[in-house]
Structures are given as structure tokens and as C-alpha cells.
Amino acid sequence: MPHIKSEPFDTSKADQLILVDFRAISKFGNETWLVSKDGKSIFVDIIKRANEYLVKPNKITKGSDISFVKTILQYFIDELNLKVIHSNINVKPNRPKVAHFAHKSIEDFYRFKSKFRTIKLEVGFGSARHLLYRAKEEPDTLFIGIEIHTPSINQLLKQINLQNLDNIWVVNYDARLLLEMLPSNILDTIYVHFPVPWDKKPHRRVISNFFVDEALRALKVNGFLELRSDSDNYYKYALEVFSNQKVSKFSVDKNIDIEIISKYEQRWRDMGKDIYTLKLSSLKESPKRDIDIDFNFGTVAIKELPNEEKFIGDDYFVHIAKEFKMDRGFVAECSFGSFNIPEKKLLVVDRGRCYYMPSNPVKSLVNLKAHKKIIEVLNG
Ligand SMILES: C[S@@+](CC[C@H](N)C(=O)[O-])C[C@H]1O[C@@H](n2cnc3c(N)ncnc32)[C@H](O)[C@@H]1O
């Protein structure tokens, strides 16, 4: 990330700079400034060390456009007459991450549309052997693969390029939060092959009552969820969850052959382990689902955070940490939401108006729960 190291300077001069919206100071004396130009904003941190000040974008705004960050840093050098000790703002921008038509963000699912009539989802595809095989076999089906493990995502994107496939979407996110964003009755199949058993932390399992409710809602009538597992515990647990459905149809097979197996499965087979295949089918049309999640705060009375705040719920947490004060309110570093893919945001409270920077969280139900908790904290 672009940054500058300069000799210490008078940071109060920032109050006179037209691009600096406000300046907030932490209890250690470090500062963060909200800087805006041409409708874009970033937070810039000033880390004060004995002999030098480090000026850099706040890590939470690190997704910002690099040339914009450089323009802002150059502006500080010019306007504050910084005596630069070291800077990397003349180096070429980093190579962009693989940009790929198949690579989707979770926000792309807010208004999901697809020209494909048959849509299948694979949760935790790992090496993607199964996903790639199916996508090649069924070119008229859209396959959505979701994974939390980034190297698996990159490996699949590479294969999609190499094999010239145009019927795969890849999402780097927690599968437990994707289904709720999909419209009702659109999926033909959901594959969950060899999910992590999480014997000691069952609340982390992909399969849960909530997941299965959402799966049946998103599946078409006669569409099915296929779970495969080598874990006796997981198999029994899944049977129990499937049985919780009021109206349900499911089947169990043991040690059946399927067309393609992953290296992972092969290893278990070689060890002589039993492999269970459970299929849960959707039997009825589900009502339409519109997500209307709003991250507004209304007005908040709080001027200062009394303490660092930590809260852990069943499926979400909230952690409000380092606070930068200013006379109009404060800026706090905040992480919250799901355990696997938490949100990291700056929480700005400016004259009673409160908002997230650099953007609102993903519209998921756990983020909404966390947001409500944050409002509770802000209102004491
Ligand atoms: C044991 S591996 C199985 C991989 C593959 N399905 C197979 O059969 O070889 C489980 C995979 O699920 C992924 N995973 C675990 N929890 C997940 C979640 N909540 N959302 C998406 N992927 C998840 C892991 O990163 C891992 O790649």
C-alpha cells in the first residue's frame, strides 16, 4: 500500500486542509483523518513514532483505488510541506488481483439473475474436481462454487481459464450466508461433499436447521441437497436436522459409487471408511423472498465509547476496538458478523450521525444481528 514516512510535523494543520473532513485522535496520540476528493473518501492514519511519522491509508480502507491514495498522499506532502524520509508513492501500482468474469462477490447475489435455466451449487468445493467434472458434463447448467479457502478459489479460476469454461461462478464466502441471498425456487441441486465435521464446535457446521430451511427455500420442487460424509457423527447429526423439517423426503445410501470422487474421498475409501450419501428433496414451492436489510443507525446519543466492547452470540460476534476521538464524536475500529468471514469496518460517529466506512456490510442476517447489537452499544 502507498505510504510515506516523514519527519514529525504539526498534525493540527490538517484542520485547515480543504480535503480533510475531520481529524480524530486515539488515546495513544495517533490520528486518523477522513479525506474526500471528487466524491471518494478514505481514512488516512498518522502513526507517530519518535523520529518519524508514518502516513498511510487505514487498513480497513485498503480496498481503495491505489492511484487515489497516491494522489491524497502527494497532496499532504505538498500542502503540509512534509519532509519525506521514505515514500513508495512513485512506484507502479501493484498488479491487480485476477479479474475474472467467473469471480463473483457476495454482493453480486443481491439481485441474482442468470440466463441459465438449470443452476447447481457446490458448497466447499476444495480441489474442485467434482465441480469441474460436472460443469464439463453439463455445459447448459450454471455451477456456483462457494469456498472460504482462497487458494482453492484461485486454483479453480485458473482451471476455468485453462479449460475455457463459461458456466461456473466462483464465490469466496461463507456458504452458510449465501443461500439467504438467493431467490426462492431457483436451484436444482446443492452439493455439500465432505464438509468439515467440526465435532468439537458443532455450531460451525455448514449443515444446520437454518441452512436446511434456506436450502429447501432456494431449491426448486424436486431439487435436492446432496450431502456426502465419511463422518458417522456428521451423518447422524444431518439425519436429525433433515428430520426436523415438517414436510420432508430424504434418502440414505452407504458406500455407493458416484461418477467422480475427490482425492479426499479416495483417501477415506483407501482406509476402508464408510461413506454416507444423504439426499434431501424439496417437495413444495416456496414463497418469494426479498431481502430488505438496512444498515442505517438513526441518530445516536453517544459521544465517546466507554470501553472496548466484545460480544459473542451463537452465530455472530461484535468487537468494537480502538477509538479515535474528535470533538464532534469518534471513529472506532469494529469487526463483527460471522466467525468465518467477519466484517471489518470503521464506525464513524460524527455529531450524532453514525455510519460505516468505507462501505456498509454485506446484507446478511448475521450482519444485521451484529448491527443491531452495535446500535444497542451506541445507545448505552
Ligand atoms: C474436507 S474439505 C472437502 C472438499 C471437497 N468437497 C471434497 O469433497 O474433496 C471441506 C471444504 O469445505 C470448505 N469450507 C468449510 N467451511 C465452509 C463454509 N462455511 N463455506 C464454504 N466453504 C467451507 C473448506 O475450505 C474445505 O475446502
Mean pLDDT: 90
Low-pLDDT segments, ≥5 res: 91-99
Sketch the major β-sheet: 11 strands, antiparallel
CATH-defined fold name of the largest domain:
Rossmann fold
> What is the tally of beta strands?
19
Heterogens = S-adenosylmethionine
Radius of gyration: 25 Å
Distance from N terminus to C terminus (CA atoms, Å) equals 37 Å
Total domain modules: 3
- Tell me which CATH architecture of the largest domain applies here: 3-Layer(aba) Sandwich
Order of helices and strands: EEEEEHEEEHEHEHEHEHEHEEEEEEH
Number of helices: 8
What is the helical fraction, as a range of percent? 10-25%
CATH superfamily of the largest domain: Vaccinia Virus protein VP39
Provide an overview of this structure:
The protein folds into three domains: 4-87; 103-281, 3-Layer(aba) Sandwich (Rossmann fold), CATH 3.40.50; 309-378, no CATH class. By secondary structure, it is of the alpha+beta class. The strands form two sheets. Strands 1, 2, 3, 4, 5, 6, 15, 16, 17, 18 and 19 form an eleven-stranded antiparallel β-sheet that branches. An eight-stranded mixed β-sheet has the order 7-10-9-8-11-12-14-13, with helices on both faces. The protein has helices at residues 66-79, 129-137, 150-162, 175-178, 209-218, 232-243, 263-270, 365-378, and strands spanning 4-6, 20-26, 31-37, 40-48, 53-57, 84-87, 103-104, 118-123, 141-147, 168-172, 187-193, 219-229, 249-254, 276-281, 309-312, 317-326, 329-337, 342-350, 353-357. It contains eight helices and 19 strands.
